[in-house]
Amino acid sequence: MKKKGLPPQTPLWQIFIIVLLFMIFIEAAQAFRVRGMYMEKQRLLVMHTLQRFADEEGWFLSDLSPTRIDKRQMEFMHETHHRGYDESVCYKSRYSETSPAIRCHAF
Amino acid sequence: MSRLLSVTLLEVYALVLALVQHVRGVRSDEAVSLLNIPVFDPPLIRTILHRTEFLSFGDFFWRLVFATILIQSVWFIYETAHGLPQRLKKTLCGAWLLSASLILSAGALSMASIAALFGLLLALLLTMEQDLKIGGLLARFKRYLKAERTPARAMRFVHDVLHHNDERLAFLIGCLWLAAMFTAYQALLYFPIVVLLLLRTKTPHWKKILYFYSPLLLLLCYTLRNPLLLLSFVQNFTRDLHALSITEHLLYGLSLWSMGGGLVLSIVGTAGIVIMRRWELLASLSLTLLLAILSPHIHDSILFLPLFIGGTYFLFHHRKAKKLKDAHVLAAGLIMAVTAVFFFPSLEPNLARDAMKKIPVDDINATILLVGPYSYEWSYYSYLPIIHYSENLKNPITKYMICIKDCPESLKGGMVAKEDLSLGITLYERQ
């Protein structure tokens, strides 16, 4: 029963769906940027490139996270995980064997 | 006063279990959560754990929190089982506290423990549906105010309020489901219970669909935006699948099932689920057993425990357990205690912790080169960046080098062996 003078209460399901829709939109947009990982040929290129950088720089694959995958190049984040400050750097690279990882503008 | 004493004794129990795990040190899967590395679990709890990384005793703090939550959850069982005779209530609570899976997992930083807690809340919500016969919300509120306040009584009261308002109950279940989805993927095993609880609410079907499917959709989007997480999940699962023979898979599955309820509760709980035809619990139990067989991990045994609690409750509630004598309960307790001791892992030395203690933490510009098989506890115990050796490594010149296996001689130039740790691991320092 509503009391006089008070604004009507927002139904709970509206709060739930608004919050979730917002979060789904954010996550889906990022998932769309890395959709290339779900096509076999592109996934092989991406994994080969990431493994190459991991071997050359001594990085761990779990510290790498692709953020954008295009047909010719990719962007990825490298975040170190240890006690203390975790440095997080954005890199971009083409898929060729000799392309270096160049720092991109961090988010 | 006796309730306060019981809470204190339970807290001492939780402290002991946390200390035992602390002595063992941080293991690889725990380090993943503490360092917030996106390889196994969704981000909710590990993000919170990571915030206390600056504390030198952070891992012990969270062990105590996890142990406290799991041990003190017994009060939810005690209060929810109010329809049972006192002896059966205490038996059920004792079974929770003595099960091998709880003893192993309380104090361990495993997301499966939090998923199991979620499972317990769901199972208790199921049981509350059974004996909510007292009417009069106002009368119950007055009784609540007079009664001794405990978290479980508060939970019962909240349930009563929600039960009179199915919209709020469905919203609560949706929020719990969302939180569980973003804590551990293992929480998916309890989806049959979530479905039944939502179906029982008197809300429109589209709202039930909303509360059930939208968290799943969000989890799917989160997983897809982290392709390496999905890839490591598939790789680990495939590796586990092929690592053992079919017989070994079945034996491990059976071990986890028996560990889940300390054997006695496993048998009674499973029997209760089947005899009382609790199909939602049976479905969750089947899924959990399938996971235990296909990809056995010791900490996943706790996922069985809330299902066994639910099954045992329904068996006790609807069957007159008059033939259950004190001697039976004592024998069951003894078997469960022996099971717990049998399955408890040995206290092996933590090589990563011992090695990293030898490296000064104030050498902020230094790097550590790790040669050999890597696991995440090395990163947890290190205050310096670690790089992993491979033959293609461009710059292997670092201040420190840890050789878990034999290091190539080319790397040892300019290095002095600083410490010869156990099991052939050597720490080198550049001069």
The side-by-side strand order for the widest beta sheet of chain A comes to 1-2-3-4
Helicity level of chain B, as a percent range? 55-70%
Decide which structural class fits the backbone of chain B: mainly alpha
**Percent of residues of chain A in helical segments?**
25-40%
How would you sum up the major sheet of chain B?
5 strands, mixed
Specify Rg of chain B, calculated over alpha carbons: 24 Å
Output mean pLDDT of chain A.
85
Major β-sheet annotation of chain A: 4 strands, antiparallel
Give, in spatial order, the strands making up the sheet with the most strands of chain B.
2-1-3-5-4
Beta-strand level of the residues of chain B, as a percent range? 5-15%
Structural class, from helix and strand content of chain A?
alpha+beta
The number of distinct helices of chain A, counting runs of at least 4 residues, comes to 2
The rounded Rg of chain A comes to 21 Å
Which stretches of chain A are poorly predicted, pLDDT < 50 over at least 5 residues? 1-7
Description:
The complex is a heterodimer of chains A (107) and B (431). Chain A starts with 11 loop residues before the first helix and ends with a strand. In chain A, strand 1 and strand 2 form a beta hairpin. Chain A is of the alpha+beta class and 107 residues long. Chain A has helices spanning 12-33, 40-57, and strands spanning 64-69, 73-79, 88-94, 102-103. Chain B has 2 domains: 2-343, no CATH class; 351-430. Chain B is built from 21 helices and 5 strands. Chain B is globular and about 75 Å long. The model of chain B is unreliable at 130-138 (pLDDT under 50). Classes of the chains: A alpha+beta (107), B mainly alpha (431). Chain A binds chain B through residues 11-13, 16-17, 20, 23-24, 27-28, 30-31, 33-34, 37-38, 43, 47, 52, 54-66, 80-84, 86-87, and chain B through 35-39, 53, 167-168, 171, 174-175, 178, 207, 210-211, 214-215, 217-218, 221-222, 224-228, 231-232, 369, 374, 376, 379-396.
